[in-house]
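dude i think i finally got it to work??
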Amino acid sequence: MPKSNLGVHEKLELHELLTFKTTCLTKSQTMIPMVIDPNLKTILQSDVNGGIEDIQQLRNLLV
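look at this
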């Protein structure tokens, strides 16, 4: 992958977003075993899957 042309401020914003998404992912993963309702469990699992994809994309932008 070619080196990105992001400015320092843009990299800091991406890092902040990556930290937020990681926190959200951790919370959703932690809550899944505690949830009884299957519909809510499905929503949380979907959030986890989307969060993983988002984090991978953000990490690729920061490389």
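The chain is about 80% helix and 0% strand.
im so relieved honestly
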